[in-house]
Amino acid sequence: KCNHELYPPISGIPSCTYVSILGVTLQRDCKFNTHVKNKLVTANKCLYFLRSLRREGYKQAEIDFLFDALILPNLTYALSIYGASESDLTPVQCF
To answer: What is residue 4's predicted lDDT score, i.e. its pLDDT?
Structure first.
């Protein structure tokens, strides 16, 4: 599961609760809650943008194309990493 042992700080290396590497946020407790939350916030912003375009009169085919180009890659990037954890995958499935 997770190593809960705290190691003494090493001089010059700061301690942090999470780190973002290649767009994936890794937490100290081996969960991806922060990563999933950030991805869902970004996806919601993109959905607002798409709703605004729909009100402006864009065709459904254009909206679908933008959804496939903007939102799906955002949600599916690194899905194979955090998808194994049910607690992290459930919010994405609900979205």
So the answer is: 67
Q: List, as own/partner pairs, every contact residues 1-8 make where C-beta atoms lie below 8 angstroms and the sequence separation is at least 24, other chains included.
A: 1/30, 2/29, 2/30
CA-to-CA distance for 51 and 68, rounded, in angstroms?
Answer: 14
Place of tokens 């375009």: 53
d(CA 41, CA 60): 23
- Give the containing element (helix H, strand E) for 26: strand 24-27
Q: What is the pTM of this model?
A: 0.70
State how far the Cα of 49 lies from the Cα of 67, in Å rounded to an integer.
10
d(CA 92, CA 76): 9
Residue 25 host element (H or E): strand 24-27
* Residue found by looking up tokens 């049910």 in the block: 86
